[in-house]
Amino acid sequence: MSGDVAAHAARAAAEARPEFGAFFLARFLDLDISYDDEARTCTVVLPYAGHLCNPQGSVHGGVLATVMDVSMGHLCHRFLSTAVTVEMNLRFFRPLTGHGRCTAELLNAGRKLVHLQSRLTDDAGRLVAFAAGSWHRLDAKDPTPR
Ligand SMILES: CC(C)(COP(=O)(O)OP(=O)(O)OC[C@H]1O[C@@H](n2cnc3c(N)ncnc32)[C@H](O)[C@@H]1OP(=O)(O)O)[C@@H](O)C(=O)NCCC(=O)NCCSC(=O)Cc1ccccc1
Fold it and tell me: Which atom of ligand 1 has the smallest separation from the CA of 60?
């Protein structure tokens, strides 16, 4: 790890709080998280950084998965309730070699399960990756006593 990256990681760790938008990974990746309250969407911008790349020189797929997961989780938290990922399906259509921007939207909000999608595009607006995920609401009431 270069000194710059180590300093960046240390700063992110020092500034991190266990809150939406402020936890360590959001800080380390320099995510810009915003919402459209009318459309009920969450947009996350991922600035390009060389240390996030795989050996082929494009942003690592795991980083993209993290960012898309963040977009769906923050959407749930903002418009429904805090929730956790149950499953996520991802497709990568082209390598990302610059900034990424993904927008998550609701497909169906059930009382317990929420289904969402997130589309990630590059600076030219080209579709880089698509994710679909299911989330479990943590405010869901279990009607069956255990
Ligand atoms: C190549 C393919 C898999 C299949 O392509 P097809 O569906 O048959 O479509 P097509 O051939 O039309 O290509 C589409 C566009 O892509 C462009 N392009 C293609 N190849 C390259 C290239 N090498 N470099 C630059 N650009 C390339 C190509 O020019 C075209 O653009 P254009 O329309 O001309 O402007 C494509 O879907 C893809 O790259 N997906 C993203 C995969 C990805 O990024 N996964 C996540 C990271 S993996 C990871 O991190 C895991 C890991 C861990 C550890 C170590 C290593 C790895």
Answer: 50
Ligand 1, CB within 6 Å, residue ranges:
54-56, 58, 60-61, 92-95
Closest to 98 measured CA to CA, from 134, 125, 71:
125
Strands 32-36 and 113-121: unpaired
Cβ atoms of residues 107 and 99 within 8 Å: no
Judged against a pLDDT cut of 70, whether residue 1 lies above it is answered with: no
Domain boundaries, the chain: 30-137
Give pLDDT tens digits for 121-135: 999 999 999 999 999
With a cut of 80, say whether residue 88 has pLDDT above it: yes
CA gap 128, 73 in Å, rounded:
20
- C-alpha–C-alpha distance, residues 94 and 85, integer Å: 25
Homologous superfamily in CATH for domain 30-137: Hotdog Thioesterase (3.10.129.10)
Report pLDDT digits (tens) over 7-41: 999 999 999 999 999 999 999 999 999 999 999 99
